[in-house]
């Protein structure tokens, strides 16, 4: 997600996040904001930089975003939703999609109404997270509510929320009639989950998780790509949360995480990765 205001001001971090890579096509860039003209300009900039689809975020519940009258805060202002969608759709020649929640709170469940507005304004696809903004990520995602929104729009609808296993994905896909599934937090530290879900939906067969050696290679590759993309200082810091997610639930992960968080250079971090996964490689081989 890129803040539109920061994008058009040329903030280096925002420009970097939206930088396309030759392997990333079709490239979807998600923008956030509350000013129709600024959103439209940010959309144009991203398309000029290589975006194939523009996604508008009206679902982010984070306080900083909501305080700026962006993200999920927009669901409380339907006239502004109309203006933003109209401006962005008119500004770019590529498809525009939208992500929302069920509503602001349980007393204001206007997700279906926002879906109808999106359809009228030329949005091409809708993603619905099955919670309200007030819920944040507490409780369980309401997939029945997602199904009801699906029934009230002609747009393709993607369901999102609490998809943690291939079995859950298939069950909710079949029960709701949604056109697609979006996996978020469950993939942190388990990027192979997407392949597992896709394979299960297609064949009904469960793919095993990667071996320790395969995870070791994947973690190293991810770390090296973070360094390439962000540079050694920021990349090393950015890697900390990812390395913690990869190791979550594994033996010795707490001590490993603490050491990684204190590593000041990429060389130190790489040594920790090699030591941690190398030991697990040896244990598995034995």
From TrEMBL:
Keyword Nucleotide-binding appears in the UniProt entry: yes
Active site: 60
This protein's UniProt keywords: Flavoprotein, FMN, NADP, Nucleotide-binding, Oxidoreductase, RNA-binding, tRNA processing, tRNA-binding
Domain DUS-like FMN-binding positions: 1-274
Top-level taxon: Bacteria
Molecular functions per Gene Ontology: flavin adenine dinucleotide binding; tRNA binding; tRNA dihydrouridine synthase activity
The reaction(s) this protein catalyses: a 5,6-dihydrouridine in tRNA + NADP(+) = a uridine in tRNA + NADPH + H(+); a 5,6-dihydrouridine in tRNA + NAD(+) = a uridine in tRNA + NADH + H(+)
Binding positions for FMN per the UniProt entry: 30, 99, 129, 184-185
PROSITE patterns attached to this UniProt entry: UPF0034 (PS01136)
EC number(s) from the headed UniProt entry: 1.3.1.-
TM annotation in the entry: none
NCBIfam families, per database record: nifR3_yhdG
Family that this chain belongs to: Belongs to the dus family.
Protein purpose: Catalyzes the synthesis of 5,6-dihydrouridine (D), a modified base found in the D-loop of most tRNAs, via the reduction of the C5-C6 double bond in target uridines.
PANTHER family given in the database record: TRNA-DIHYDROURIDINE(47) SYNTHASE [NAD(P)(+)]-LIKE
Descriptive protein name: tRNA-dihydrouridine synthase
Organism: Magnetococcus massalia (strain MO-1)
Gene that this sequence comes from: dus
